[in-house]
Specification:
Pfam families: DUF167. The chain is of the alpha+beta class. The chain contains 1 helix and 5 strands, in the order E-E-E-H-E-E. The chain is 18% helix and 42% strand. A hairpin with a 2-residue loop joins strand 2 and strand 3.
């Protein structure tokens, strides 16, 4: 199982969920979830699981629980 670390900048309260920028291990992702009560973090994990076609349990938010800049570990 390959493990990758991604740096992600999240833009909450967007109209739709989409990746707006992608470079090597960096993503800028717009999410329609608000940045309150962990909703944006849960939406990010859901979005990444669909993007990589893996289970949500294989995605871990390492850093940035309360920040727009996040570090995520993905077990591919």
């Amino acid at each position: 199982m390959a493990e990758k670390i991604f740096h992600i900048k999240v833009v909450p309260n967007a109209k739709i969920n989409k990746i707006v920028e992608e470079k090597d291990n960096f993503f800028k992702i717009k999410l329609n979830a608000p940045a309150i009560e962990n909703k944006a973090n849960l939406a990010l994990i859901e979005f990444l699981s669909r993007h990589f076609k893996i289970a949500k349990s294989r995605i871990e938010l390492i850093k940035g629980q309360k920040s727009r800049n996040k570090i995520v570990k993905v077990n591919l």
